Amino acid sequence: MAKNNQSVSWQAEEYITHTHDIWWYVGLFIVAAILISISIWQGWWSFTLLIVLSIIAILVSNLKPPRKISYTLDSAGLTENKTLHKFEEFRAFGISKEKSHYFAVLLPKKKLNLSVKVYFPEGSGEAIVDLLGARLPMEEIKPDFLDKIVNFLRI
């Protein structure tokens, strides 16, 4: 982690990995088989294809290790590898914790834009909050419906 008065740099994984035992995979395949059976019985071929593709995507994402991302937070904004997210794109930020991992969420001004979720080491937290707080108001972050589903399913 590099730090000076105007910037903080660190590296973190792009997402938190979850370990799954054999029963998690068995449950996934049972739910998939039930949904596929119902969709075939009803003749919903597009839904059947969507289920199959979703299961493949979940399996591939679980097998692929997360990338290490380099972050720099400075007066221009947040640089994620080589992508700059300017502060002007965001209306606020929030800090939260998932298990033992801290993260910041930058909330977009435009409704259809995605928020930016950034994991950081605990030791960098104060400097990150100070730099973000100098540019954006801080808000409480509440998980939305999709976040709750992802956390429940551990994907």
What features would you describe in this structure?
This protein folds into 2 domains: 2-15 and 67-153, PH-domain like (Roll), CATH 2.30.29.30; 22-63. 39% of the residues lie in helices and 29% in strands. The protein is α+β, with helices and mostly antiparallel strands and 155 residues long. Strand 1 (2-3) and strand 2 (8-13) form a beta hairpin. The mean pLDDT is 88. The chain starts with a strand and ends with a helix. Helix 1 (22-42) packs antiparallel against helix 2 (45-63).
Short description:
Helix content is 39%, strand content 29%. The chain has 155 residues and is α+β, with helices and mostly antiparallel strands. It folds into two domains: 2-15 and 67-153, PH-domain like, CATH 2.30.29; 22-63.
Uncertain stretches: none
Mean of all residue-level pLDDT scores = 88
Number of strands: 8
- Tell me the name of the CATH homologous superfamily of the largest domain: Pleckstrin-homology domain (PH domain)/Phosphotyrosine-binding domain (PTB)
CATH topology of the largest domain: PH-domain like
Number of domains: 2
User: What percent of residues are in strands?
Assistant: 25-35%
